[in-house]
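Incident review: delayed structure delivery

Summary: a single-chain prediction request sat in the queue longer than the usual turnaround. Root cause was a stuck worker, restarted by the on-call engineer. No data loss occurred. The affected request and its eventual output are reproduced below so the record is complete for anyone auditing the incident later.

Affected input:
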Amino acid sequence: MADIVRLKAPGGAEQLELAQIELLPPAAGEIRLRQTAVGVNFIDIYQRLGLYGLPDAKIPGVEAVGVISAVGADVNGLKVGDRVAYAGAPVGAYASERNLPAWRAVNLPDRLSDAVVASSFVKGITAHMLLNRTYPVARGTVLLVHSAAGGLGQLLTRWASHLGATVIGTVGSEAKAEIARRAGARHVIVGRDADFARIVGELTGKRGVDVAYDGVGGTTLVKTLGCVRPFGVVASIGQAAGPISPVNLEDLGPRRSLSLARPSVMAYLNETETYHSAAKAVLAGIEDGVLSVAGQSYPLSEAARAHADLEAGVTSGALFLTV
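Output delivered after worker restart:
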């Protein structure tokens, strides 16, 4: 029997419950994974709220680390006992064991702990997408990262700084400002009600940033448009603070001449070659110390508390569940 956390009905964190299910043997092309650490991401919260649909089993979660305990037919290059990570569909990571397509499994170096990988894998691949596909960030790029002390925010800041970019971060408190600075942010704006456009204008000589990443939602996206230079990019990557205020085409141009992106890491993860090359880059970045981010652990049985803490903004860094 596998322990799982499933959703009773769309809604608050209290809708998550612990249960058990019987697993079928892995089918052809599948492996069974005995999981040790499960990443917690805002996409899991969106699944719980009903913004994104869940499969019939109603188990959220898109990433985990574990050890292969069984291998189905027609699986090559993997064996029982291999330690692997995975990310992406099929959704259902909140479990002690599960079956999944073998092509999703990525072998892990012995030097990397389960906790470190579970804290950084999906967030690192998201950062890879944003820094490469959404807008090619390089030396000299100036970018704005909202929630720069969060799990994704820290990884974006660390990676962009490593590439030679200048990062302006926003945070909600002075304590989180220090976290963002340690991650490599050159400038930090404190306070959700800050006049982002004015401060960014002062910091950039009225030019604006090349690209801005907003996972806050609410009214933040509309405010962020004023922070970006003409022909720059604004990437909307979430809505942690609630539904995003409507954006009119006139807000983008022609005067501002902005591009608005709404990239999906799930779509990125579904490109097989992209997934494996991004995973390789992320694991290398973790090994090199570029993408290290502090993780906070919760037992699988306390997934609801992890969700509540993440939504309340009382955590910094990354969250993961231990099995």
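Verification: The mean pLDDT is 96.
Action items: add queue-age alerting; document worker restart procedure.
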